Automatic annotation (TrEMBL):
<protein>
    <recommendedName>
        <fullName>dTDP-4-dehydrorhamnose 3,5-epimerase</fullName>
        <ecNumber>5.1.3.13</ecNumber>
    </recommendedName>
</protein>
<dbReference type="GO" id="GO:0019305">
    <property type="term" value="P:dTDP-rhamnose biosynthetic process"/>
</dbReference>
<comment type="pathway">
    <text>Carbohydrate biosynthesis; dTDP-L-rhamnose biosynthesis.</text>
</comment>
<dbReference type="InterPro" id="IPR014710">
    <property type="entry name" value="RmlC-like_jellyroll"/>
</dbReference>
<comment type="similarity">
    <text>Belongs to the dTDP-4-dehydrorhamnose 3,5-epimerase family.</text>
</comment>
<dbReference type="Pfam" id="PF00908">
    <property type="entry name" value="dTDP_sugar_isom"/>
</dbReference>
<dbReference type="GO" id="GO:0000271">
    <property type="term" value="P:polysaccharide biosynthetic process"/>
</dbReference>
<dbReference type="InterPro" id="IPR011051">
    <property type="entry name" value="RmlC_Cupin_sf"/>
</dbReference>
<dbReference type="GO" id="GO:0005829">
    <property type="term" value="C:cytosol"/>
</dbReference>
<feature type="active site" description="Proton donor">
    <location>
        <position position="130"/>
    </location>
</feature>
<comment type="subunit">
    <text>Homodimer.</text>
</comment>
<comment type="function">
    <text>Catalyzes the epimerization of the C3' and C5'positions of dTDP-6-deoxy-D-xylo-4-hexulose, forming dTDP-6-deoxy-L-lyxo-4-hexulose.</text>
</comment>
<dbReference type="InterPro" id="IPR000888">
    <property type="entry name" value="RmlC-like"/>
</dbReference>
<dbReference type="GO" id="GO:0008830">
    <property type="term" value="F:dTDP-4-dehydrorhamnose 3,5-epimerase activity"/>
</dbReference>
<keyword id="KW-0413">Isomerase</keyword>
<feature type="active site" description="Proton acceptor">
    <location>
        <position position="61"/>
    </location>
</feature>
<feature type="site" description="Participates in a stacking interaction with the thymidine ring of dTDP-4-oxo-6-deoxyglucose">
    <location>
        <position position="136"/>
    </location>
</feature>
Length: 182
């Protein structure tokens, strides 16, 4: 596995070594000892799997009282995945990083606790899987506005059309009004 720290160094892009031939492929997707060395000592307690169609944007979400770290990957299709630093004490507070994750590149992204996270589907469909360091707590989830002008995230919108959002995401908070971590 290759580990690459991004413009926000706590967010890490992971690229597995893929062994393939005419029968298919094999890859290791997680090894705790290496993850701990490159990303920190975290334990995962919940795995999730979602399916979405082209043009759907999920996020930007985070839990405030029970922050979650997320190790995310796409097993079908392609998404633009985004992490926003919500930690006031961080030198990258209020900054974001985004990467394309796909079934072709097989890359994974480590989004530590203290970040808002979201993704936008660029392929016809996408299946998105992720491991979490804390349990989902629906009453604790906060949604940031996907198009917040302070963040100015450069989403690769299909045909420059607005994304399809859940009602929760349509009512997302502005960055300046959202609770932040210390």
């Amino acid at each position: 596995m290759q580990y690459e720290k991004l413009a926000i160094p706590d967010v890490v892009l992971m690229t597995p070594q893929v062994f393939g031939d005419e029968r298919g492929f094999f890859m290791e997707t997680f090894r705790h000892s290496e993850f701990e060395e490159h990303c920190g000592d975290y334990a995962f307690v919940q795995d999730n799997h979602s399916k979405s169609a082209r043009g759907i944007l999920r996020g930007l979400h985070y839990q405030y009282q029970q922050p979650q770290g997320k190790l995310v990957r796409v097993t079908r299709g392609e998404v633009f995945d985004v992490a926003v630093d919500m930690r006031k004490s961080s030198p990258t507070f209020g900054q974001w990083v985004g990467v394309m994750l796909s079934e072709q590149n097989k890359q994974m992204l480590w989004v530590p606790p203290g970040f808002a996270h979201g993704f936008y589907v660029t392929s016809e469909e996408a299946e998105f899987q992720y491991k979490c360091t804390d349990y989902y707590a629906p009453g604790d989830e906060i949604a940031l506005r996907w198009n917040d002008p302070t963040l100015n995230i450069q989403w690769p919108l299909v045909s420059n059309q607005p994304p399809q959002l859940s009602s929760k995401d349509q009512q997302g908070l502005s960055f300046i009004d959202a609770p932040c971590f210390r």
